[in-house]
Write a structure and sequence with these properties.
The chain is an all-alpha fold. The chain contains five helices and no strands.
Length: 111
């Protein structure tokens, strides 16, 4: 079973190989650019984090929606592809951070 960290590390070389022009290309009017897809992954992570926090802090389970098309149409298409790909390192570090603390929880619960 691959961890998210493994997936990100495997994807980074392929993402780095994508040119700025290719990342900005819009295959069809209703299809997102590669920049928008990568931005969507970032936005989705941010929104899911907020959902986790709310689910743990609030009574009931009223999680906010977000309009992914509005978010994807945001500023990601204006940013350099290399800057967006660099955020992959942030995702990898986030996964490592979570695994580190999950190991602490397991150690403390067992010991």
């Amino acid at each position: 079973m691959s961890t998210l960290s493994d997936v990100v590390e495997q994807a980074l070389p392929r993402l780095r190989a994508v040119s700025e022009d290719a990342a900005f290309r819009k295959p069809a009017p209703e299809v997102w650019r590669a920049k928008q897809v990568l931005g969507h992954l970032i936005d989705s992570s941010v929104n899911n984090h907020a959902r986790f926090v709310r689910a743990g802090a609030e009574n009931g389970l009223a999680l906010p929606d977000y309009d992914q098309n509005v978010w994807a149409a945001g500023g990601y298409q204006q940013r350099l592809w290399t800057k967006l790909v660099t955020l992959g390192f942030v995702a990898t570090d986030d996964v490592r951070h979570q695994l580190h603390h999950l190991a602490q929880v397991r150690e403390r619960a067992e010991g």
